[in-house]
Every structure is written in C-alpha cells, then in structure tokens.
Fold these 2 entries.
Entry 1:
Amino acid sequence: MLRLGELLEARGHTVVPFASQHPENRPSKWDDYFPPGVDTQDPSLGDAARFVYSPEARRQMGRLLKDGGPFDLAHLHIYYGQLTTSILKPLVAAEVPIVQTLHEYKLTCPVHSHLSQGEICEACAGHAFWRALPRRCNEGSLARTALSVLEASVSRALGDAHRIDHFIAVSDFLRDKMIEHDVAAPDDITTVHNFVDPDRFEPSRQRGEHVLYFGRIAPEKGLRTLIDAAAPLTDLPVRIAGAGEQREALEAEVARRGLDHIEFVGFQDGADLWDLVRRSICTVLPSEVYDTCPLTVLESFACGCPAIGADIGGIPELIDDRVDGRLFPSGDVGALREALVWMQTHRGKAVEMGQQGRKKIEEQFSSQRYYEQVREVYAEVT
C-alpha cells in the first residue's frame, strides 16, 4: 500500500491514506481521521466487537470524505479486522468507486489461508464459513475460530464482495479461486502481480556460496521439508534467515541431528539481507500453502539470484523452470534435494538463470509496469 502510494504521488496523483491508529504509523497530516486500532494479540470484549464492525471507522471515514474530498476512487488493501466493512457504506453513499487489492484468501476462507490443522482446506467454499467451526481452523481454538467465522459472515452480509467495484488479484491462482468460489465475476477481477523496483537492487554476477531461505519461519513455509532435503548434502551450506514461531523448534532439531551445514542467521533486512541474497547460489521457497505472489522470489530475481520454488499457489507464475529457477512438487523431499544438487553442481548455469530473473523483473515486474496496470483498472472503474 505504501509503495503504491509513493508511485502514484511521484506521477502527480494526490493520495490520502486511511488506516487505524498505530504507534509505528508513518506521520501523516491525515492521521487525525484514523480510528483507534484493534488489539488482536490480547483482545478485550470491545476489541472483539470492533474486529467485526467498527462504528468509529465508519464515522471517521465519513469525516474524511466530507473534509478531504471529492475523491476519484478508494483503493483498499487489508482493511478488515481494523477498519472493517463499516467503511464501505459511506464510500458507496458518496459514490466513490472502490478498488481492492487481494493479497490473500480472506474472502473465501475465514482464516485467510485455506489452511486447517496444517492441511490445505477449501471446505468453506467462499461462503459456508461455519464449516470452519468443527475444524477449529484458527490456531486450533474454538473461540478464535468462532470470532473469525462471525467476522467473515458479517463482512459478507455488509458487502465485502458485492460493494467492491473491481478487485485486483496479485496472482492468477488467487484470481481463479475468487472466481471458482463465486466471490467475483471474471470481468470484475484483474491480475496485477506484485512488483519490485529494480533500481533498488544491485544484481550479482558471481557464483554463489550457499543456498538461502529468507522469510517467516512457520510450519506452512515448508522449512522442515527443506531441512530434510538438505540434511545429507553436507558440502552445501544452507542459510535460513527470518523469525517466526517455528524457529526455536527447527533450530533445536538441526542441532540435535548435527547438521552443521544448516545455519539459522536470524532476522535480516536492508543491505545485510540483499548481500546475503547476492552471495547465494539460489534462494529456496519450499512453501506448503497457497502462497499468492511472494516478494521473496521477485527480490531474489532483482538481486540476480535464481529461485527454487514449490509448485503451489502463485509461485509457478513467477518461476520458469530451468530458465530462471527450478520448480518441485510441494512437500516432496526427494525432488527438492534433486533441485538443490542441480544448482550446486551447475553454478555457472545458476548465474545465467539469475540474469534471466533480473531481466524478467525489469520487463514484467517493475514499478512502472505495475503502475500502468493499476491505472488501467482505475480507468475502468472511473
């Protein structure tokens, strides 16, 4: 959302942000209009109620429309749970066209991921959200799942699908799921993949030293599959960068198994992270959930580094097998090991693959290309 706002402002558009209050928000002359945030970590009864419907967000949206308008359109991102669908009615009343970028599966799954008890699940089919209750899909908790089901049901009733003039999906896979489960008609949803600015990244042209995973360390990311695949490859250094609820358990497992060539390097960002990527033979995304359009692949390509990815969700839309990376069946330890060995023994080819990835970013996933595609959607709704 922030990067899109920067793109629009750099090209002469006026952008007015609207978000919930948070101590880490960027300073804005509009933050007096921001409603109080919802504490989702240790929620009170009031927080739970505002998670489903926020009267204050509706009131503040009305103020903003009155004081700051007229507006050509509203572009929503992940607004639910904080702003909630309460903001839709004042936008519709003010006849402001609404575009929403879908980053995940909230409209087809009450826990946003199509993941239940560690397995892919589409039981709710975009509308029967109550089916999540016996499965306890939200962290195994009946209370949390009930709140998620209530929020999804209220949001649907208040127009989280039919009051949006046009959806943007960040992958064709995500778009197809929205159509399959009757959330959006084909003419009302357009794929615009995520982007990176290639000018922000210095690409590598050197042979890499290690294999790298960077991102959140959680069960659905497939890191146990990566560890099992890399375990016998003792001459191939593997680096795992990131933080998350599974890190402690996986780090202990690696130590117990004596896998000294696999190292957890902690959370990395900025220049340190990009240096780690540039020194990689390849990056790996062994996901076991419907990833939509992971920036880790695009950022890897921008750094001139090829990627190995699981063939799940939107990942195959980003990686051309044996051109700028490798694809393997999600969860398949043997196939991932074969891809790792191939990269290790074809390091010169891996450099060429990384160059192809960089070229792809410049031609297909640049900020300019993204801006052009989003402006086409804006033109349609206005």
Entry 2:
Amino acid sequence: MSAPRLVIGTRGSALALWQAHHIKERLEAYGATIEVRVIKTQGDKIQDAPLARIGGKGLFIKEIEQALAAREVDLAVHSMKDVPAALPPGLVIAAVPERADARDVLIGRTEKTLDQLPQGALVGTSSLRRICQLRARRPDLRIEMLRGNVDTRLRRLDEGRFDAIVLAAAGLARLGHTARVTEYLAPEVSLPAIGQGALAIEVRAGDAEVEPLVRRLDHEPSARAVAAERAFLTRLGGSCQTPLAAYATWDAGTLALDGMVGRTDGTEIVRDHIGGAAWSAEDLGRTLAERLLERGAARILADLAAAAAADAGSA
C-alpha cells in the first residue's frame, strides 16, 4: 500500500506555520507525504478591530474549514483556543497532541512583573478574558487593544507603545521567544483561555485514510483536559464577547478543572473548581458551568449579551 499524500490547511502566520510543520513532521514519521497549504482567513485580514466586534474566534478558521469540507485540504491544524465550541457538520477534531504550557505571560518593557508595573501603566492585549482578570488584580492599569502576530506585538512593545503586553506562553516558546518572558502568570491570577497551549487537528468525519492516521497523534491527558474545558464553554454559550476561562489539569486519570466568568471591567468574577474522573471530562465541564450559572454567571452573561446587542444596534 502506498504512503498517503496529504495536504494540511493552515493560516500563514509564523506561529501557525510552526504548528503545521510540527504536525507535518510527526505524520511523516508514520510514512505519510505531507504538503502544507496556507489559507488566509478573515481574522488575518482584519487587524484593526477587536475580535468581539468582528465576529469572534471562528474568523481564524472558517475558510480553512471550508477548504477541508470541499476536499481542497485533507486536514487542518488550529490553535485549539481559536476553535469555536460547535464544529461544522461533517468535521471532527481527530487528535489533540500533547499540550504545551497553557499559562499567560507578562512581557514588561522595564518592570518585570504585573505587581511591579507603575500606577496607570499601559498594557496591551485584545482578550476580554485577560482584560477582566488584569483589571480585577490591578484596576489602575490602562489597557488598550493589541492585535497582530507575536512578532508584531513584541515590536510594538519595543517601540515604547506599551509598558507591558500579555501573551500566551505556548506561542512564545514555539517561536523561540521564551527569553522575552518577564513573568509567568499563575492561573490564580490569569486563568488561561479554553484550549490554550493545545493544538486541534481537524479532519472530515469518517475519512478512512486520514482519520486513523491523525488519531495516532492524540494525547489522552491533553484531549481529556481540553474536552472538559470545551464542555464548559458549550454549556455557557460563550464567545469572544464573554470574559470566561476554564483550565483543566490531568493527574493519574483524574481531572481538576477551574472555571470563571466575569465582567470586562473586573468588578465581578464568579469562579469555582471541580475534580473527578477523566473519563467524565464533559460531565465535569457541564457541571462546573452549571455551578457558575447558579452563583451569578447567568446574570453576568445576560448583561453582557444585552450590552453587545445594544452596541450592535448603535453601530
């Protein structure tokens, strides 16, 4: 039987290409011949507006998923945190490789830690989740939108436009920028985004050639942890307009899951923790979401939805 010849669809950023070529090398170790094809997404084209205003995380994968469904590519490699809770019909996540460091990091231009930043320091990020938690910890900070790829964000910091920026540890490590990190933010300070640090390999459901090959890259502890986080997201119906987070860790077949929902200004955060058997990952995520809803998250989410609708109506 001849080795499969497959095409990976990916975004064209340096980080996305690193991720795609990493998966390419792993699949080629099993005898496959792999081509990497760059597909430009709507999220790549619009760099001057917050994600919450232009449609959310799905903007970074929609065109790639369309190419996958149309059989123009055979598999897609995404950052898991860019993948919406619901996948298009006929597509599945076939593998979650071993997760990298899920934490957020601070990169300070002069000061090294979040607590050392001076009063009124200017911090760059485009994530409502990060904004919520930063303001809860340091309500004096000024926070402004910062989008673009990793190198663009680092350059804007170096140009003096910000006193500090917040990025994902995994992306910096993959691109060789770990030395730039001045503080790793503990999950207690900045709970990571759902799926942060993990990759998602998406394929057509039932593809007899591609799916079994890709499943060989699945890392059960990472996949179970991400499943719990995504079940939490699904139950809450969250989007990029919602400051929410969930982070699960695996220990000998059990999961510990933390989740939060908050207001963008950081004045109210509802947070809780749950633990249980890893085989019940989705149940753990849904149960934790229910707890938060009962403790006030339902009210916060309703307020955020009403504000978003009002904002859209006035646009």
